Amino acid sequence: MNVKTNRAALFASAVFFLMTGCPGNNGDPALQGTVEITLPTFFWVGSTLAANVSGLSPNAIPAFQWERRIGASGTFNAIPGATAETYTLTLADDNRQIRVVVSSPGFSTSIPSEPTATVRRLPVADQLEALREMETLPAEITITTGMPEEWLDTQMLAFDEGDEREIEITLTGTPGDVLRLNNPGFMFALGRNVTLTLKDVELRGIANNTSALVGVGAYSTLVMMDGARITGNVNTNNNMQDDMSFGGGVLVSGRASFVMRGGAIDHNEARVGGGLVNGGDFTMYDGMISDNVARVQGGGVRLIGTGNANMFGGTVSRNTTPDLAAGVLADQSATFTMHGGDISDNTAGRVGGGVTAFGTFVMESGNISGNTAAEDGGGVAVAPGGGIFIMRGGVIADNTAAEWDGGGVANGNIFTMYDGVVSGNNAGNEGGGVFVAWHSTFDMRGGRISGNRAAWGGGIANGAGTLRISDGIIHGSNAESGDRNTAFAWAAVGNRRRYDEPDIPYLAEHGRFNGNDFERVGDLNSTGDTIEVVNGVLISPLSLGVDTGGAWRPAIRMSPALSELSLSRTIFDR
User: Fold this and answer.
1) Does 523 have pLDDT greater than 60?
2) Of 283, 313, 361, which Cα lies nearest the Cα of 379?
3) Which regions of the chain carry the CATH code 2.60.40?
4) How confident is the model at residue 417 (pLDDT cuts 50, 70, 90)?
5) Which one has a higher pLDDT value, 485 or 344?
6) pLDDT of residue 125 exceeding 80
7) 3-class DSSP assignment, residue 160
8) Is the previous residue joined to 541 through a cis bond, with omega within 30 degrees of 0?
9) Which of 12, 154, 384, 478 could share a disulfide with 458, CB 3.0–4.6 Å?
10) 20-43 b/e with 16+ CB inside 10 Å = b?
11) 178 and 202 in contact (C-beta within 8 Å)?
12) Which of 423, 471, 421, 412 is nearest to 444 (CA)?
């Protein structure tokens, strides 16, 4: 289709002028005026038509009814609900002509416009080619899928607009419409000042691609709405020096944006970031990033560089990697803030089933649950040397570190807990709830750690790190076996043990360690026992425990002096 040469014919306005002023059969005057259909720059399914009325009879109140017909001589029929001054062409208008009829109460006749040319449902590639031929683009453009299934070569959405205008393109279709990639590379590559919104359309990649399916360049924006899907793309590029090896579904460059309000990014694969690699700004309100695979790191989402992410809703789930960070990975200079939503049911072959933080992860709310790591950090892994995990709320629950440490959280650097819940997590070795590794710090200022299980330290296991507890509740955790090897720098906040340890000093009704008082509260029987520590500092190798019917059940075990524990107002409840 030659847009330029056919523009006069394609975009001509239709005019009908009623000259007579004779009254109708019922005695009411005939309506006078001119009705034109103002055609948009692009005339195809998805375009919006406007009725332009002029010279209308005095006191007339125009009412609009859009109509369609098949062919040039068929009968026009009213389009249900199309009674506004504008009308957007739908798939039902394909191969039809359109007109608008204007009427008014108190007038005996109505004014029909001339019909438009026949509406066409053009392939997406042809619509985009028409855009490129335009000397000046409109600010808002709607592209509608031309058929249920189309094949596309790479589409570069980059336009030379000297005035730096922003161009907004909406790509929409009927649910179930599929655009398939025809050749290796991006299906869509977004250039500067372009916003692409996807709605009710599926983008499907290929099994031997060399890049992500969608590339979002600097100063551009990708928006996903309900019904949008990015799927089936396998980025086989394993060159670590090539940026194109990043991302299976979407690659967002620095200074670019991605807003996810719905839809799905699923069943994609890449060396890193199976679903999404973000180096710009990513905001997730709804939708799903699921069932993606990273061959090395970041099954669902990976933040690179100074990438920033805010998650308010939606799910990151069922993503996998044989190495680390199955759900979300934040690189050293990146920040991920979780305000809501779910990171769940992800599986890592080594470390970090749900979240891995080399940079900063802030949890305000939401759930990190049901994730699994074969080794450490079933729910969260905080990397040594720079990882920071700040928990202000939310729930970390029912995660598993199958073989080693930190069913809920494996902390290798800094973990600060102000509020929230860590519960129901399991570790094969140490720290069902939290494991504090060598040279790391866990600062508990509130919240609750409860109902976790591990071989050692059902609630918290301190592996020669620094453990500071100033507020919060630790209760109901379970450790399966005993620690009789005090050669390791090790501590456990476990609250229940299934063994006796007569070699640990027994703390009776009142005890004093390094000038700090610890008072036993309650009957200290098999249930409901509580120990409250007020302004205490316990330095290893000291122990705090309870006697439950003759069996020693240590609540805290510190050994040897490499471990440090600070306590002020924390409740340990079996």
Assistant:
1) no
2) 361
3) 7-112
4) very high
5) 344
6) yes
7) coil
8) yes
9) 478
10) eeeeeeeeebbbbbbbbbebbebb
11) yes
12) 471
Quote the DSSP letter at residue 560: S
Give the 3-state DSSP-derived string for 89-140, with helices as H, strands as E and coil as C. Answer: CCHHHCCEEEEEEEECCCCCCCEECCCCCCCCCCCHHHHHHHHHHCCCCCCE
Give me Rg for the CA atoms of the chain: 33
Helix, strand, coil distribution of the chain in percent, nearest 5: 5, 45, 50
Nearest residue to 205 via CA among 223, 185, 190, 191: 185
What's phi and psi for 108, nearest 5 deg?
-85, -20
Other Cβ atoms within 10 Å of 424 Cβ, number = 22
- Alpha carbon distance 430, 437 (integer Å): 10
Phi, psi of 467 (to 5 degrees): -120, 115
The answer to whether the pTM exceeds 0.70 is yes
Euclidean distance between CA atoms 33 and 113, whole angstroms: 11
> Which contiguous run of DSSP H or E holds residue 189?
strand 188-190
Q: What is the mean pLDDT of residues 373-392?
A: 97
> How far apart are the C-alpha atoms of 246 and 173, rounded to whole Å?
29
Tokens of 314: 């939606």
Residue with tokens 């029909």: 112
Phi, psi of 93 (to 5 degrees): -90, -5
pLDDT for residue 569 is more than 80: no
Task: Give the length of the chain.
Answer: 574
With bands split at pLDDT 50, 70 and 90, how would you rate the model's confidence at 130?
A: confident
Which tokens go with 227? 């019904």
Mean pLDDT check: name the lowest of 73-87, 130-144, 210-224: 130-144
Q: What is the CATH number of domain 7-112?
A: 2.60.40
Contact 456, 496 (CB under 8 A): no
C-alpha to C-alpha distance for 396 and 250, rounded to whole angstroms:
28
Burial class of 136 by CB neighbour count within 10 A (0 to 12, 13 to 18, 19+): exposed
Q: What is the DSSP letter of 182?
A: -
Token readout for 52 is: 């332009």
* Structural contact between residues 326 and 316, judged by C-beta atoms closer than 8 angstroms: no
Given this model, what pLDDT does residue 543 score? 36
